[in-house]
């Protein structure tokens, strides 16, 4: 391992946290800006609204499996280079969006972008685990998830504002500028020294390296508690992110009749999740992960049921409660996986995020069946079944509570 002086390491830890949080905001702005621009995309590229949603649906699968690639790459060559290179290429790819002439070109560029932006979520938690002192780890993870939330809010609202006031080319030019500034800041802040994974020092054949990588994924996926954490995160995101999609359709219809932009303001409810993420480190240390999983489940259940009350105020309060519960779940899962992984760390976190985004992809089609049957009331029924599965997963995780908590905090 690279030897770092205590003063340098303290300074480097602070810079690393700032850098990866800014990188997270940049990534999620790029990922979710188009969600607020779907009507503008449909109009500009002369496609239907249903076709326009492809710029979102195709990205979730690509993102899920790109995460696994970066896990392998960063375990081989280190964390710094993949993040920096991918972010600069992400900034450059926004230029391609400005000049995209057809919807097919737009979809291909989005696939490229998602493959590039996957580096940050795939590597960040492993980077934190290796570079930060144990006392910093949970705090850094909590702030990082808070940055995820802020980026998600900013991207969607930013996209809605641009779609309402700017042309497609001007909008993409502005996204390019914001991305460029963010990437420059990240590059400046990231420490130049890093404690590199020991595995990259081993001189073995290519076939042996591939087997090591495969074994790393199998090792984590064969751990029952890791597997349950992956299921918990995937089910929670499967419900929450798609609820936010369908609720926009609900509040745009009568009796609410909100405009497309005003409907996107529902994403401001993510702010309660930002708050929960920030406090999650303190809560995990005080109460442990399992009680927080139970609290989060209750919050998501209560918030979802509250949206059945036929007023806009009740819907907003319901989504504030649901978002709080979801981000508490996500923070606990992230911290659990990062702290439990003692080897192949990037593979552990990327497997979690792969399940997380696959959940988002599958959840759209699943809840769509309920939407077609009974619109928002149907979505709530479909959500209840997902929460029931979540309850079973959390209960199973609780069977091994004592051994789990000991493994998490013995570091």
Automatic annotation (TrEMBL):
Residue stretches making up the Major facilitator superfamily (MFS) profile domain: 16-400
Spans traversing the lipid bilayer: 16-34, 54-73, 80-100, 106-128, 140-159, 171-191, 228-249, 261-279, 291-309, 315-339, 351-370, 376-395
Its membrane topology: Multi-pass membrane protein
Listed Pfam families: MFS_1
Gene3D superfamilies (alphabetical): MFS general substrate transporter like domains
Keywords from the UniProt entry: Cell membrane, Membrane, Transmembrane, Transmembrane helix, Transport
Keyword Transmembrane annotated: yes
Native source organism of the sequence: Shewanella phaeophyticola
InterPro entries membership: MFS, MFS_dom, MFS_trans_sf
Highest taxon in the source lineage: Bacteria
Taxonomic placement: Bacteria, Pseudomonadati, Pseudomonadota, Gammaproteobacteria, Alteromonadales
Location (main, coarse): membrane
Record protein name field: MFS transporter
Subcellular localization, as worded in the UniProt entry: Cell membrane
Membership in a protein family: Belongs to the major facilitator superfamily.
